[in-house]
Design a protein that fits this description.
Number of helices: 6
Structural class: alpha+beta
Strand content: 25-35%
Oligomer: single chain
Helix content: 40-55%
Order of helices and strands: EEEEHHEEEHHHH
Largest sheet: 5 strands, mixed
């Protein structure tokens, strides 16, 4: 759990791990965070802390503001949507990487056949074809997405990949 040190109705700093604290000229050991109740911590200006932050894949973050409530402090970042074309490019790269990783496990079979050896088993050839087709379909679908909401709701998982 994270905590915020509040003095004069302002967040002085956020603690991301327990540490000893000096409050009103009294030094408190770090174990107060596990031994004391929330009300006891609040009495010396230490509040449970949480942050509200949009998904970093889709948003850039700006300034941080604090809302000091009765039993907690909530930090909220100002978010600005990233460029849609940049997000879509990253999504397409992720889809291609997934397809490539799957296909790479059987590439030796394709090379063997290409170089005059045994043919690729039909089931492997069919699965490889399905992965390439799904990758191409996903790329085309991603290119049609026009809003952050549509992008966030798009599922890039492959249905053609075998269960592990």
């Amino acid at each position: 759990m994270y905590y915020a040190i509040v003095k004069n109705n302002n967040v002085e700093r956020v603690l991301f791990s327990p540490e000893s604290i000096v409050s009103n000229d009294v030094t408190y050991p770090k174990n107060i965070f596990t031994v004391w109740s929330v009300d006891e911590l609040i009495a010396i200006g230490i509040y449970p802390y949480s942050e509200v932050k949009d998904d970093g894949r889709f948003y850039d973050f700006g300034s941080l503001s604090y809302d000091i409530q009765a039993k907690e402090v909530v930090g909220t970042y100002v978010s600005t949507a990233k460029n849609l074309d940049d997000i879509k490019e990253q999504m397409i790269n992720d889809v291609k990487r997934t397809a490539s990783q799957y296909l790479s496990t059987g590439d030796w079979l394709a090379i063997r056949e290409y170089e005059g050896g045994d043919t690729i088993p039909t089931d492997v050839k069919t699965k490889r074809s399905a992965v390439r087709a799904e990758s191409n379909t996903k790329e085309a679908e991603i290119n049609t997405l026009t809003t952050i909401t549509k992008i966030k709701n798009y599922d890039t998982d492959f249905v053609s990949l075998p269960a592990e």
